[in-house]
TrEMBL record:
<feature type="region of interest" description="Disordered">
    <location>
        <begin position="124"/>
        <end position="149"/>
    </location>
</feature>
<keyword id="KW-0132">Cell division</keyword>
<keyword id="KW-0812">Transmembrane</keyword>
<keyword id="KW-1003">Cell membrane</keyword>
<dbReference type="GO" id="GO:0051301">
    <property type="term" value="P:cell division"/>
</dbReference>
<dbReference type="Pfam" id="PF04977">
    <property type="entry name" value="DivIC"/>
</dbReference>
<keyword id="KW-1133">Transmembrane helix</keyword>
<dbReference type="InterPro" id="IPR007060">
    <property type="entry name" value="FtsL/DivIC"/>
</dbReference>
<feature type="compositionally biased region" description="Low complexity">
    <location>
        <begin position="126"/>
        <end position="149"/>
    </location>
</feature>
<comment type="function">
    <text>Essential cell division protein.</text>
</comment>
<feature type="coiled-coil region">
    <location>
        <begin position="73"/>
        <end position="100"/>
    </location>
</feature>
<keyword id="KW-0175">Coiled coil</keyword>
<keyword id="KW-0131">Cell cycle</keyword>
<keyword id="KW-0472">Membrane</keyword>
<comment type="similarity">
    <text>Belongs to the FtsL family.</text>
</comment>
<feature type="transmembrane region" description="Helical">
    <location>
        <begin position="43"/>
        <end position="67"/>
    </location>
</feature>
<dbReference type="InterPro" id="IPR011922">
    <property type="entry name" value="Cell_div_FtsL"/>
</dbReference>
Length: 149
């Protein structure tokens, strides 16, 4: 009996016959190869890539120019700060050199005589007025406070 409690494994028809050979049918499959891209399409792709490279190059070049300008601006700002510090120091020195007391001492040292006390005070007041009204430094000119005898 080939059917025992639902099992067909014992079916004699299913047993391989050692004398039978398994035949394999060989089939050939035709492979279609895609043709290459047309020349116009290749040129379009090449043009697109070249255009992207040129745009990227221009952008990078502009960023480099901006960076260079910023570096120059920072350098100039540093130089401006140094020059402003020098200017303030020179202004203080000019004010110190233009003080009436120092001018009197310098006049006495050089041998000038004050003829009248009131004349000396007038000269001192006029020197103060000049120094307060002028905003720029003079180039080393000094006013004679008194006349030479």
């Amino acid at each position: 009996m080939s059917y025992i409690q639902g099992n067909l494994a014992l079916d004699p028809k299913r047993k391989p016959n050692p004398q039978q050979r398994v035949k394999i049918k060989e089939t050939t499959k035709v492979v279609y190869r895609n043709s290459s891209l047309p020349a116009q399409e290749k040129m379009l792709y090449l043009f697109t890539v070249v255009l992207c490279v040129i745009v990227a190059g221009v952008i990078i070049w502009r960023f480099a120019a901006i960076y260079q300008m910023n570096a120059n601006i920072l350098k100039m700002q540093g130089e401006i700060r140094e020059i402003q510090a020098q200017n303030s120091a020179l202004k203080q020195e000019v004010e110190k050199l233009q003080s009436p007391d120092r001018l009197k001492e310098e006049a006495v040292r050089l041998g000038f005589n004050i003829q009248d006390v009131k004349q000396g005070e007038v000269v001192a007041q006029s020197t103060k007025a000049k120094s307060s009204t002028t905003s720029t430094a003079t180039s080393g000119k000094s006013t004679k406070a008194a006349s030479k005898p």
